[in-house]
């Protein structure tokens, strides 16, 4: 069992966001950002770090809002079990 605390649940649903191919994004892993689902630096001093990812294509992606997904930064439906 990990000593790391659980992240804050920002919402129990995914965030549908538009992304641009080739652009780098920083997904909030701690759940404390005021700019969900993206990082605003609220994790500083804590055990979490944002997850950087680059969009593969233009379009809508569903980013995890509960911060408990096994497929970060994408929603895998874990929020339905919380």
UniProtKB/TrEMBL annotation:
InterPro entries: CISD, FeS-contain_CDGSH-typ, MitoNEET_CISD. GO terms for molecular function: 2 iron, 2 sulfur cluster binding; metal ion binding. Keywords: 2Fe-2S, Iron, Iron-sulfur, Metal-binding. One of its GO terms (cellular component) is cytoplasm. Residues 12-49, 50-81 form the Iron-binding zinc finger CDGSH type domain. The keyword Iron applies. PANTHER family: CDGSH IRON SULFUR DOMAIN PROTEIN HOMOLOG (PTHR46491), CDGSH IRON-SULFUR DOMAIN-CONTAINING PROTEIN 3, MITOCHONDRIAL (PTHR46491:SF3). This is Zinc finger CDGSH-type domain-containing protein. It comes from Thauera phenylacetica B4P.
């Amino acid at each position: 069992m990990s000593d790391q605390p659980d992240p804050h649940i920002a919402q129990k649903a995914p965030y549908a966001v538009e992304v641009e191919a080739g652009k780098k994004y920083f997904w909030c892993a701690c759940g404390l950002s005021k700019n969900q689902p993206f990082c605003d630096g609220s994790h500083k001093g804590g055990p979490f770090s944002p997850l950087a990812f680059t969009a593969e294509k233009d379009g809508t992606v569903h980013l995890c809002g509960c911060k408990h997904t096994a497929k970060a930064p994408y929603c895998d439906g874990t929020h339905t079990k919380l």
